[in-house]
Task: structure prediction
Amino acid sequence: MLIRLLREYLAPHRREITVIVALQFLATMAALYLPSLNADIIDNGVVRGDTGYITRLGGVMLLVSLVQIVCSVGAVYVGARTAMSVARDLRAAVFAQVGSFSSRELAHFGAPSLITRNTNDVQQVGMLVLMTFTMMVTAPIMMVGGVLMAVREDVGLSWLVAAAVPVLFLAVGFIASRMVPGFRLMQTRIDVVNRVLREQITGIRVVRAFVREPVEAARFGRANDELSDVALSTGRWMATMFPTVMLILNVSSVAVLWFGGHRVDDGAMQVGALTAFLAYLVQILMAVMMASFMLMMVPRATVCADRIVEVLSTRSSVVPPTDPVAVGDRTGHGELVMRGVTFSYPGAEAPVLRGLDLVARPGQTLAVIGSTGAGKTTLLNLVPRLFDVTAGEVTVDGVDVRRLDPELLWGRIGLVPQKAFLFSGSVADNLRYGKPDATEDEMWEALEIAQARDFVEAMTGRLEAQITQGGSNVSGGQRQRLSIARAVIRQPEIYLLDDAFSALDLATEARLRSALASVTTEAAVVLVAQRVSSIRGADEILVLEDGAVVGRGTHAELLDTCQTYQEIVESQLTPEEAA
Result:
């Protein structure tokens, strides 16, 4: 998976890669030439006392060193830019893929895991690319060139190279093989820590309200300790890498000096050649050590690449139509129909919705009520295709939503989710999510309808007042009203209001519903609510129980015909209020 991923995302950077390889080749050739020049200075300059020769070759060494420095700096610069570009493209691809997922895929991966994959995992792959450009490109050139230059200096000592290099490779390979399972488990444990931390930060008020700080601290401590244990176990193996490499390097250097000293004493080798051979052996083993850096990173990057590819290769269960059709005018403008709709979550024992039929016509309000878990929110999520039906069909103006272009479908819908969510930015920025080209007058009109004008005018900056992430600096009721204003401003043909008034007091809710009625005269409204007071004026009310419709009619009709509705009304209203 790692090779496949890198091949795809490095393909647009062939020119930069060519430049990096060329610069690294020149820098490595210069580094390999320096020991030979040094040997020549010792044998023909120092031994003979020829100062002029030493000066001339010293100048050549300085020039070669300058070439090495310039090429190395250039290679690292281009390599760093290319590696960061690859990481940028990879993050963008993962983000775009996640944006195409339906709620089913999001639930499968989980938000903490997706965040880790798009941050930590991509970072690990990006660092691998950077290390490849700065080290791995040099290592094979250095190893091959070093062997050739060492043999050129003295064939009699070449057996030391043949012995040291395989030993180093085997030692590093053994250690790296023990690190792979640890890195794989480490990424999973990071997901768990992110999930626990995200839950605790999101629910900090609940934690404090129920005095559960010690319990949550213990839960985070367990997740943190599990991650630490894996990191320590993997780190111990990693810690043995460098001492092992240095031990083999130092033993090899001692062997060169021992056996090379005897050859110099026997007259079979010159002192300069021995110095150069030792330098080349060190360069060879240093190249192997640079490769070991890569071997330390490859296992973890491989695990990260697998997780990234898993996201990129997952196709959404909600697929855009290959041949989208236009919305017809035969059945009206903004008419929503569900016929025989059944929906089951993957792995669920029973369907959430069973054989559901409904019709929401323009200018009418269809309300849905039922106990928690009855399938109310799932019903609304089927309209904008956050999920696709398991059986049956959902149509808008007579066309199955699965055959409509997603942008066209979403442009006809104004959704206010059960959990009102605001984005970081200004009030105006949040309203423009509903209509990007909205004018100030349109914004104030939408805020007026949503009963949000008063508190927005009181905020510093008014429309430019800043909203923090998730809308945490405004109350729950204010978040709901801003979310409703965001839906109203786009003037949709179908309003989907999922318990959109739950955080409002009864007086504010009454004013808001009255204001909404004036702008929804030509739109269909599907309202999900827990409070009977929110839906009693609807043109039709559906009562859901265990995913099936057990009652259908107006408030007065259901009081006479539906026991479930009667029980809901009795739990919320007095007999006088219910009448």
Observations:
- Residues 213-265 form the longest helix (53 residues).
- The chain has two domains: 2-313, 336-578.
- The CA atoms of residues 229 and 325 lie 56 Å apart.
- The chain is about 65% helix and 10% strand.
